[in-house]
Amino acid sequence: MNKLALSAAVAAAVGLASNSFADGPIDGTIYGKINVSVVNTDENSSDKWKLNSNASRLGVKGKTKITDGLYAVYKAEFEICVDDGDCKGQTFTQRNIMGGIRGSFGTVWAGKHDSPTKLAQKKIDLFNDLEGDIKNTFEGENRVSNIIAYTSPTVSGFSGTVAMIPGEGADVDGDGIDDTGLSDGVSYSLSYNKDNLYLAVAGDQDVDSQDLVRMVMQYKMDNLKLGAMYQQNEDNQGTKDESGFFVSAAYKMDKTTLKAQYGFIEDDVDGDEEETLSLGADYKLSKNTKAYIFYTDNTDSEVDSADDEASSFGVGMEHKF
Amino acid sequence: MMNSTDAKLWSGAFLSVAMLLSGAANSSCDFDTDDADGPDFLDKIIQCEKQQGSRDKSAKTSRANNSAQITKLYGDGSLTASGIIERPVAAAGTLNHHANQSFVARQPYSLRPDAKFEESVTIAIQKLHLEMAHYCARGWDMQRQWTEPNGQQQGDFFLHYQFRCAGT
User: What are A300-319's pLDDT values in tens digits?
Assistant: First the structure.
């Protein structure tokens, strides 16, 4: 059987399975988004135009009932590169992929996934996936391989997640010894989410060579949404000891949302500083489609050397499906 | 590194699967794509699929109702030599039209080596078309066709046509 026939056969088999279970307990949903922008970046007095794909993605998620109150849950999400079709040499690259068991006890899940610390940020980053993404300034925005996690049920608005990350032979804590345990890296979050208020405290231990604690707040008042984060982190080599804050605000006026955010972090070891400022506006074209415009300035300041500054402005559109 | 042929193969396979699943996507709950990366992504999956379950029930009810609206044209007629109750084929000149109404008709046929021409599938199809023309004089669309074995004798079958009269 040639590859094309094999591909068709697989697709047909899945189709038959899908049809066979159409009335049954398997609920799979495909989702995704296309997010493209045309951006001009001026970096140290040299500017260039780019078309960016901004983490456009395609995913499948769902749950399957095992018994009453017990479910298998799954999600498999892949990045698609709308700009040139080349995602680091691949057609698709892996994003969040997990499977788990969900019951009244909570959810046990595993896979390659955003850490609880990253999840706890809860999109206070209003320029996520663009040049102003806080991952360009702050540590802790990690998608972690080999993550094994437990998420508690939500009780009176409170929920928690703790994750273990086996080192699988890598030296994750930088002590010169290969780590082979179950919890060589740990990430956790505790959050409160009720009415218009969201609060979270989260942290990492030996994740991406960092020990980290962050606190997050989000508050909604009518058309205004405010976000704030405070973070401290140090690497396990002792070469970095950072603390910083981040604030954001979004104000919705009919179909237009005005957005602004600012972040600053300073390294107490060498005095280096990083700063990010983004301004922008979204215009809602339909329920799932928006056009946007933005300006971002990211500055890295190192002691005894010139600032490394990158400013970008761009226009783009995002369509979710 | 994946070569070009492999990349195309996997792309094709992935998109095929995606298209097959897109039916579910169309009927999914109001799930924002960014919710998949949110701290409560597990709750969103559970909540959405619960709504999906409700829709499945609605869909089943709808299908059941549709099924109830399909009129069977066999089983309440005269007794044939094979012992099967069949409704007689409509006589010429008795044409009707039931706009948008669905029917299921069936005719026996045989694939036995000693079967007579009158028992052939050709005649069964001819009779089914006469029947469809009788109930849908202004045309119809074929919704489904299938065959079931006649348990009375090996090699004998029933050809079923499910059809719906045109809307005009």
Answer: 998 888 889 999 999 999 99
